[in-house]
Amino acid sequence: MIFTELTQNEFDQFALHHPLRNFWQTSNMAKMREAKGFSTDYVGIKDDQGNILAGSMLSSIPVFMGSTLVQALRGPLLDYKDEKMVRFFHEHLIEYLKKKNCLYFHIDPYVPYVPHDLDGNVIEGSWDNKDVVELLKKLGYRHEGFTRGIDLTREPRWIYTVPLKDKTPEELMKQFERKTMRSIKKALNYNVQVNELDRDHIYVYENVLKQTSEKRGFEGRDDEYHHRLYDAFHDDGYVKFLNATVNLQDYKKDLLKDLKKQEDVYESSRKRLETQESPKIQKKMELAKEQIDQLHAKLNEADQMIANDGEVLDLASGIFFTYGSEVLCLMSGVYEKYTRFAAPYAMHWKMMNYCIEHGMDRYNLYGTSGNFSPDAEDYGVYLFKKGFQGEVVELIGDFEYIVDPKKYKLYNTLRNIKHKIRK
Are residues 386 and 154 in contact, defined by beta-carbon separation less than 8 angstroms? Predict the structure, then answer.
């Protein structure tokens, strides 16, 4: 085996077909980070025939006295069960990083740790990657721990995915919880439309996210970030900014159709009761009257929404990555006052069908805290994801390797002093 630098094209071709492929380990992500001052290197292992066996996109940025922090975002891409390969890659990579004046090296491999059920309990007696964690620690990496909770400085260690391999949309729909199934059908019945936003209309997504971030108490990305994301990934077909809308005039037409049906039921039931007594028919008429009242209320609400907000409403928006073997929903939001239209379900259903049509293996609803108690800060969001009856995935976590221990000790001391002063 030979450790070597790779060209961008070599790395891209290798990464696209690797089992652990992800959008962080792409030249697209490198391009995006370079706009923020990072520099990029591509390294890997080749066999004697020149075939690439392992590789990584490395992002570097100066942090202290000319030394750099180097990151392999969701990487490196290699077979972590092959100890010989992992050792070879690590030893040669560290020598390479020393020549690059690296202070410390950070990785968070896209590797699951142990399987869990939907309540977060470990499924005993199954596979695990505990040996991978132990191997990395043995090589000198400091594991940041089996963390839970939301840490906005890190990519999530817990994610939620829905396996789709060899499934049809009909089979997929049947596996969902009833509430989820009803919500998808409701969005379809309301004729909620999901369309892709072009670059000039990313502000539509940003407006939704600002409202969502204020509601949930987190700080979203700035507008420049979203444009960089679009520029780096869109032309290669790896990202979609989606927006869900409803035309209220169409919505009213559907309501009026339902109203006519219920009025017919009510009238026919009333006439039958004139000639015969029947508790069953009486109940049917009363239910129809309830539906009629509800439909009139919805029509009045629709007229009010048209008066206040116009005939076409933006309901929800999200960012969806379409790289490799999965579609990943990075972030999404919804206008709270329009939740009745179930627009987030429409977006996810559309992209799950996209997965199936393109032969992808899974749909990734992405981060969750790993806390499954009803008291957890994201429990409501988790229940939403759980409704799709997928899988809880715990990743092995974040690791740090100190390349220059003496300088790092000074750097860490000064950093701690700085943090104390700020407090």
Answer: no
Give the full edge-to-edge strand order of the sheet including 67-72: 2-5, 39-46, 52-64, 67-72, 102-107, 399-402, 142-143
Cα–Cα distance between 58 and 396 in angstroms, integer? Answer: 19
Closest to 281 in 3D by CA, of 289, 273, 291: 273
Pairing relationship of beta strands 158-163 and 142-143 according to DSSP bridges? unpaired
Distance of CA 172 to the CA centre of its chain: 19
Q: Please tell me the distance from the alpha carbon of residue 361 to that of residue 126, in angstroms, as a whole number.
A: 21
**DSSP line for 171-185:** HHHHHS-HHHHHHHH
Orientation of helix 223-233 relative to helix 27-34, angle to 10°: 140
Contact 248, 315 (CB under 8 A): no
Q: Report the alpha-carbon distance of residue 181 to residue 333 in Å, rounded.
A: 20
Residue 180 near residue 345 (C-beta atoms within 8 A) = yes
A 10 A CB-CB count for 32 gives: 19
- Phi-psi region for residue 278, left (φ > 0), alpha (ψ -120 to 50) or beta? beta
Distances in whole angstroms, Cα of residue 41 to Cα of each of 7, 98, 281: 9, 14, 75
Pairing label, strands 326-334, 39-46: unpaired
CA distance 294 to 297: 5
What is the per-residue pLDDT across 309-357, written as a single tens digit (0 to 9) for each?
Answer: 999 999 999 999 999 999 999 999 999 999 999 999 999 999 999 999 9
CATH for 2-109+397-422 (3.10.310.10, 3.40.630.30, 3.30.930.10, 3.90.550.10): 3.40.630.30
| Structure token pair of residue 96 | 């390479």
Tokens linked to 73: 């975002």
Question: How far apart (Å, rounded) are the C-alpha atoms in residues 370 and 394?
Answer: 8
Residue ranges of alpha helices (H) inside 74-126 are 83-99
Give the pLDDT confidence of 191-212 residue by residue, as tens digits: 999 999 999 999 999 999 988 7
Q: What is the chain's mean pLDDT, rounded?
A: 94
The answer to whether 205 touches 317, Cβ cutoff 8 Å, is: yes
**Which architecture, in CATH terms, is 159-245+312-395?**
3-Layer(aba) Sandwich (3.40)
CA distances from 189 to 195, 252, 255, 343 (A): 17, 12, 10, 11
Burial of 297 from C-beta contacts in 10 A (0-12 / 13-18 / 19+)? exposed
Q: What residues contact residue 80 under an 8 Å CB cut-off, 6+ apart?
A: 86, 109, 111, 129, 132, 135
Amino acid at 364: N
Residue ranges of E strands in 164-221: 193-196
